[in-house]
Amino acid sequence: MTVAPITALPSLPSVTTVTPPTTTTSPEAAQSFSDLVSSGLDNVQQAQSTADNLAQQAATGDLTDLHDYMIASTQAQLATDLTVTVRNKAVDAFNEIMRMQI
């Protein structure tokens, strides 16, 4: 009985790649909050799209390594959960501010 050697896993697109804001004060060099939020949501969309494509390949039998789908699916789920949690905290903070007396 022979054992096949373990090969390196293929690299999947990273979900959490957000470019950090620069420390300069020039308006064209600094990213705004809305740009960061938009970039984060684009990363979540890309992770979900990748997981959907791999799920379709797994269903049709075109996917050779099932673990690629499982990794992408878990990444998309975690990114979505994080996004929902951040949204909930933002709504809670807004509601708390609205309850403050002036």
Q: What can you tell me about this protein's structure?
A:
With 102 residues, this protein is mainly alpha-helical. It has a domain of 67 residues. Helix 1 packs antiparallel against helix 2. The radius of gyration is 20 Å and the shape is elongated. The relative contact order is 0.12. The model has no long low-confidence stretch (mean pLDDT 83).
Write the SSE topology.
Elements lengths: L32 H28 L5 H34 L3
Helix count from the secondary structure assignment: 2
- Going by helix content, strand content and strand pairing, the class is mainly alpha
Total strand segments = 0
* Beta-strand percentage range: under 5%
> What is the mean pLDDT?
83
Overall form: elongated
| Fraction in helix | 55-70%
Report the radius of gyration as a whole number of Å.
Answer: 20 Å
Q: What is the H/E string?
A: HH
Q: Could you tell me how far the N terminus lies from the C terminus, measured between alpha carbons in angstroms?
A: 77 Å
Q: pLDDT under 50 segments (min length 5)?
A: none
Main sheet overview: none
What does this entry show, briefly?
This protein is mainly α and 102 residues long. It has two helices and no strands. It has a domain at 33-99.
Characteristic terms for this protein:
mainly alpha, 0% strand, elongated
